[in-house]
Amino acid sequence: MTHLTREPIAVAALLAAVQGDERGGTCVFLGTVRSDDHVTAIDYSAYDEMALAEITTLLGEAHARWPNARVTLQHRLGVIPVGEASIAIVAAAPHRDEAFAACRYLIEEVKQRLPIWKKELRADGSATWVGQPT
Amino acid sequence: MTHLTREPIAVAALLAAVQGDERGGTCVFLGTVRSDDHVTAIDYSAYDEMALAEITTLLGEAHARWPNARVTLQHRLGVIPVGEASIAIVAAAPHRDEAFAACRYLIEEVKQRLPIWKKELRADGSATWVGQPT
Amino acid sequence: MARVTVRFFARYAELTGCESAAVSIASDAATVADVLARVRESVPGAQQLPARPLAAINRHQVRLDARVQDGDELALLPPLAGG
Amino acid sequence: MARVTVRFFARYAELTGCESAAVSIASDAATVADVLARVRESVPGAQQLPARPLAAINRHQVRLDARVQDGDELALLPPLAGG
Q1: ipTM more than 0.85?
Q2: Does residue C6 lie in a domain region?
Q3: Does any CB of chain A come closer than 8 Å to the CB of residue B40?
């Protein structure tokens, strides 16, 4: 499982990586590019080596906290058109409480901790870095 | 979108039904048959007409509570082998809080309110109704 | 007189060997409990139904003291286990 | 003397027109803040970096008073926006 990709995210492969006969609940979160404010796409970039290390840390934290859960995630980089997924998180667990909790934990930590940046691209050719003081 | 099916659930079709350019967060819950206690499959049956009416009610409640969310679900009936999904719930919303909340609401209500029953089938030919006082 | 279609599901259908039964009640003010009592008499195996099963009239859950009317569909529902 | 590789990402790479720069610091006890001061002098556009950017040494976030050592990779990180 590669956690950073420049291709469209294949959720089926993520599901296959974590589901199993003992895990009856699976929670998936998909973050997709929104069409807010005339955005047509977002260009995602990363400090790849640090992002990968941090993803490994995050997944380890989730596994420590919910030992019966299996979790994985994939973040897409590059130019992602509106409507396509930039991130997919999948958590499978024996019961749904753990699956929801692990999935939610991971998306919150991803947003706080991954060295990834986004530049919104608009139809008029303008571009804006997200989350930057201007 | 048919909410009760006797075929394997196609999550992609459910996603397509609710995702959209204004909805950046999608939460999916999949309930799959677990291999607990030598179970090899679960035979799901329903009071179809009432289950369909109740599903429509539930989806309406979720939409009323999270007006920006789009939600759908599909419940599979018949004999479902271990590892395959009996239910899929999908909620897409502008932001992830609403998507998680609507998805979680629906699975809890489904478990409480749908007139659906399950009979666990085991390799030795035995079968047990789930949730029955014995 | 009220003619009611009684439907049995899942384990209750197994207990009675029956999916649907027509039941007639003379009273103008019959309740679900009255129909249930009649069912216990007339449908073999129905004695094994629990004392107070979940019930729905015309696809809406009701209490056992709810009134039934001519033409109603009364469903007897084992403990719900969807999902 | 410490030789440090400084990496710029996203908007900071745009401001400096640079992805990576080698910086040498004479002090044995140099901090991230010292390297940052040197970067502002030597890399065109780096004056526009914020006063206190996020920083990581060898892929771990650190404070600006963290020590840098010879061979370190110091990354200057715009506000994180993953997901």
Answers
A1: yes
A2: yes
A3: no
The residue of chain D nearest to residue A73, with distances taken between CA atoms, is: D83
CATH at residue D24: 3.10.20.30
A48 has pLDDT over 60: yes
The answer to whether A41 contacts chain B (CB < 8 Å) is no
**Does residue A134 fall inside a structural domain?**
no
pTM listed for this prediction? 0.94
CB contact under 8 A, C83 and B86: yes
Task: Determine contact: C67 vs chain B, CB below 8 A.
Answer: no
pLDDT, residue A133, reads 63
Residues of B in contact with A24 (CB under 8 A): 31-34
* Model pLDDT for residues C17-73, shown as the tens digit of each residue: 999 999 999 888 899 999 999 999 999 999 999 999 999 999 999 999 999 999 999
Give the total number of structural domains in chain A: 1
Nearest CA in chain A to B32: A24
Side by side, the strands of the sheet bearing D2-8 are D20-25, D2-8, D73-77, D54-57, D60-62
Beta bridge partners of C24: C3
pLDDT of residue C9: 98
B56 min Cα distance to partner chain A (Å): 22
**Number of structural domains chain C divides into:** 1
**Closest chain A C-alpha to B118 CA, distance in angstroms:** 14
